[in-house]
Specification:
The chain has two helices and five strands, in the order ααβββββ. By secondary structure, it is of the alpha+beta class. It has two domains: 30 residues; 109 residues, no CATH class. The termini are far apart.
């Protein structure tokens, strides 16, 4: 009887491991196999788009809104991969962020309505770090002077598997 229980337990553990590993899809068992940020251009196409984009004295920014956090999103220099971008806090002394609206306003007219919008941003890093208590993050501070909306639906940020959850920090540079 003990031998039968041991064999049954071994089979159960083996089957559980097989199910878990087949669902993990690259080590992210809780994430879906494809993301939810819209169109998913092939990574090679995205790389070519970044290589061909206009260069200049500005940054590309992607708004990343997570409920109750105060960081703005990711910023990168022209020609750099999003993997080299930085999550920043905005210093709004020179220019307010485009979604500086009430947090409890109507849909489309509230803080964070521009989640995943892509902007061309002028300004620069202040050289200081600022603390966002709700994400427990010490982040670079960026002082913008202008925002130009480029794309409302640019798709994934770091990977086609990017998964956005407005209540949790799910996107991080790799």
């Amino acid at each position: 009887m003990r031998q039968l229980i041991h064999i049954s337990a071994t089979i159960l553990v083996a089957l559980s491991s097989l199910i878990i590993s087949s669902c993990a899809g690259g080590g992210f068992a809780s994430l879906p196999s494809s993301g939810n940020l819209g169109p998913n251009p092939d990574p090679a196409i995205r790389k070519a788009q970044i290589a061909a984009e206009p260069k200049g004295n500005f940054y590309y920014g992607r708004r990343y809104y997570v409920d109750k956090t105060r960081f703005w999103g990711y910023i990168r220099k022209p020609g750099q991969s999003w993997d080299n971008s930085k999550l920043v806090l905005m210093n709004e002394r020179s220019k307010k962020v485009p979604d500086r609206l009430p947090e409890n306003g109507p849909a489309g007219a509230n803080y964070g309505h521009d989640q995943n919008y892509e902007y061309r941003i002028t300004g620069g890093y202040t050289g200081r770090k600022a603390y966002d208590p709700n994400s427990n993050s010490l982040l670079p501070e960026f002082r913008p002077t202008s925002f130009t909306l480029l794309n409302k639906k640019p798709g994934w940020l770091f990977s086609p598997r990017d998964y956005y959850d407005p209540k949790a920090i799910t996107l991080r540079s790799r």
